[in-house]
What we know:
Chain A has 14 helices and two strands. Chain A is mostly helical. Chain A has a two-stranded antiparallel sheet. Chain A is flat. Mean pLDDT of chain A is about 85; it is low at about 1-25. By secondary structure, chain B is α/β, with parallel strands linked by helices. In chain B, helix 4 (about 105-120) links the parallel strand 1 (about 95-100) and strand 2. Chain B folds into two domains: about 95-215 and about 375-420, D-Maltodextrin-Binding Protein, domain 2, CATH 3.40.190; about 215-370 and about 445-485, D-Maltodextrin-Binding Protein, domain 2, CATH 3.40.190. Chain B is globular and about 70 Å long. The chains are: A mainly alpha, B alpha/beta. Chains A and B meet through helix 1, helix 2, helix 8, helix 11 and helix 13 of A and helix 1, helix 2, helix 5, helix 6 and helix 20 of B.
Amino acid sequence: MTTGNAGAAQAAVLDEGVASVAAPAARRRTGLHRRQWSALLYLAPAVLLYGLFVLLPALHTFWISLFSWDGVTLASWVGFDNYRRVFTEPLLRSSVLHALVLILFFAVLPILLGLVLTAILSRHRRRGMSAFRVIFFLPQIVPLVAVGITWRWMYADDGAVNQLLRAVGLGSLTQAWLGDFDLALVAVGLVGTWTLTGLTTMLFLAGAAKIDTALFESARIDGAGAVREFFSVTLPALRGEIGVALTVTTIAALASFDVVYVTTNGAPGNTTTVPGLLVYRLAFTDGKVGLASALAICLTVLILLVVLVINTLVGGQDRR
Amino acid sequence: MGRMQRPARVVAMAALAALVAACGGLTPGSGGSSSSATTASSTSSAGSSSATGSASGSDSASGSGSASSGSAGSSGSGSASSGAPAVPTAVPTDTIELKMAFTDSPDMTKALADAFHAKYPNITITTQYTQFNDYVKSLKLTMSSATPPDIVQYNAALKDLSAAGLIKDLTPYEQAYGWDTSFPKSALDMLRVDSTGKILGTGKLIAVPAGLSLVGLYYNKTLMKKAGITAPPATLADFEADLEKAKAAGLTGLSVGSLDTGGLHLWGSLLNVLWDPQAQRDWVNGKAGSTISTPQALQATQKVGEYASKGYFPSSANGTSENDSATAFAQGKSVFHINGNWAAAQLAKALGDQVGFSVMPPATAGGKAVGNGFSVSYAVSAKTQHPEAVAAFLNFLQSPEATKIEAEGGFLPPNAKAAPAATGVLGDLVTANQKVVGDDGLIPFQDFAAPAMLDALESGLQSVIGGKEQPQAFLDSLQSVWSEYHS
C-alpha cells in the first residue's frame, strides 16, 4: 500500500510535470522535448523497479486469472469464468463475509480501545510514558505466527482462557473455543484485536502528544470533565491518526492470512475461512492457480475500494 | 511494521503466483520437449473427439468426454506395454553421484543412502532435505528445472509432473527386477498413475516404497482394565460396547483431534471396515463412475456423528489438533486413540507397556484386516543420467539391510517378512502390518482422491461432529469435489 501510494504520487508528479511543460511546448518545441525526456530519465529507475516488481506481476496475475491452470501442465483459456465462480461459489463468497466481520475485530474494536487507552493516558503529562508505550506496542513486535500458536493453546480445552474461567467460577462456559461453530470467528477476531490495539494506541498516543496542553487547561477552566475533554479536545485532534489507523487495520482484516492459517486453518467447517487463506489453498494445494489469481484480484480491488472510501471520508473532514 | 506487512502480503501473494506462473510457463515450452508432446497429443485427441461429438448433436459433451478418457486409457496401457524392451538390472560399476530430494525422516533417508553406498561403493547418493511445506510448494519448480535431482520422494504433486513427462516410468524396471513379487501389491498399486496424471492405481509405476504407514487402533491397557474391558475389541460392535463401558466408568473413550487431520483417521477407519476395500480404492484412485454416496459410507459418517453426540469423544475435538489428541492419549486421558504408525514412537515412550496397537476391528468377527495407509516412496526424474543406478537403489529398498533401517525409522518395511523382531507396541505394529499386507487390505488415504479433498474432508467432518451437517450432505459435498477434479 505504501508503495502503491508512492507510485500514485510519482504518477501525479509526472502528470504535473508534463502539464507544466506542456503549455510552453507550443512555442519552443525542441527545448521542451529535451526537458520532457530528461524528466523521464529521472523517473526511469523508480518506474522500472515499480513496473517490474509490482505492476507487471499484478498484470500477470490478472492474465493467469483468465485460465484454468494447475501450475504445471498446459493452461486452458476460460475467460472470466473464474470471476463468475468467485461470485457464485458459496465457500468463496462466505470467506469475503468473514473478512468483513473481521473488520469489526481488527479495525473497529482496536480503534475504540486505543481511544479509551489514549484518553486515560494522555490527560496529564506523566512519568513513564515510554514504558506504557512499550507495553502496549509489545503485541505488534511478536511475530504473528507466534501470536497465533500462543492463542491456539490459550483457547484449547485446558488452555489459559478456560483455566481463567474455571478460576472465577465460570466453569460452565468453558469449551474449545476454536472448535465452536458460532464462536470460532469471534475467537480469531479477538486475536486480531489483541494484536492491533497496540498499534492504534501507539498511533493515538503520538497524535495526542502533539496537542497543546493549553487546550486541556482551558477546557478544564471552562469546567469540562474527563469525558467532555476527550470529545472536545482529544478526539478532534486525532482525526488524522484515526484515518491512518482505520486504513491500516481494515486492510489487515481484509487481507488476513497468518493468524487464521495458524489458529484454525478455516475450521470448524469453513466458519473462519478468509480470502487470503483460500488464495493460498487454491494455488498451492488444490492446483487451481487461475481461480486463486481471480480471487486475489477481487480481494485487491475490494481492499482498494474500501481504502478509497476511508480516505475520502477522513480526508474530506481534514480539509475543512 | 504491521502496516507495511499486511498489504504487502496481497501484492506478494499475487507476485508469487505470477512468479510461479512465469517459471512454470517457461518450462514446458523451452525445456521439456517430452512434456509438450504429451499435452499436444492429449489436446489433439480432445479436438478430434469433439469434432465427432458435434455430429451426434446434444450429447456432444458427454460423447467427447468418454472419447477422450478412452483414448487416455489406451495410451496409458500402450506406454506400459511399450516398456517391453528389457532394461538391464546389472548395477553400473563406474563412479556415479546421485542427488536425492526428500522431506520425511531425515535419519532413515540418510541411513538408506549410506547403506547403499556401503554396498556399492562406486555410487554415492547426496541427500537434500527440505521441510515438508516448502518441499510440497517447491516440488513442481524443482522437478521442471533443467537439473532436477535424480531421486525424489513421492508426493501427490508428482502425479501432475508425471502427466507432464517429468517423472520416469518405472514399469520396465518393475518387470526386470520382479518388484511385483518383492513389494506388497497394494503398496505398489498406490503408486501407479495413468497418463492423465489423475487416475491412480492403474498405468505406469512412478515410485517405489521404502516404508509403509498404517492407521489403526491404539489402546491403553491400564484404562481398559479400569473400565472393565478385558481384551482389545474383536469387532466394531465390541468396540462400541467398550466405548460405552468407558463412558459408564467416567473415562473418555476416544481422543480425537478433528481441528486438522484427526477426524479423518476416525472416519477413514470406520469407512475401511464397513465398505468394500476395492470400492474404496477405486474411489480414491479416481476410477470413472465411482461414488462415495453409498449406504456404507453413510453408515460410517453417521457413526462419527453418533460417537460425538453420545460423548464417546470430547466435545472439544473440533478445537484439538491431531498432535494434541495423541498427546492427550499419551497422558492417559482416553482409553482408545485412532492414529497412524508415526505416533507409535511417541506413545511407546510415554506409556511403555501400557499401550497396544491393533488393526481397526472389522465389522464382523474374523473379517479381513484393513486400514488406511500409504508409504514413503521414491520417484525418479525423467532427466536422470543414471537410470540403472537409480533402479538399483529402488531395488535395494526391499533388501534385508534396508528393511532393518526402515523398521528402525518407525516405518513398516515393504518386505514385511524380513522385518526384525520388535516388542511392545512396535511389535504390535509389525503384526498388524503383516496381517493387512497378507489380506491385501491397505487402502490409500481418502484425501488423495483430489487435491481439494483434504480441506473438504476436514471441514465436513468438523460439521458432522458439530451436528451442523447431515451425513448425506457431507458425502454429497465430497462427491462434488471428486467430480469436479475428475470431470
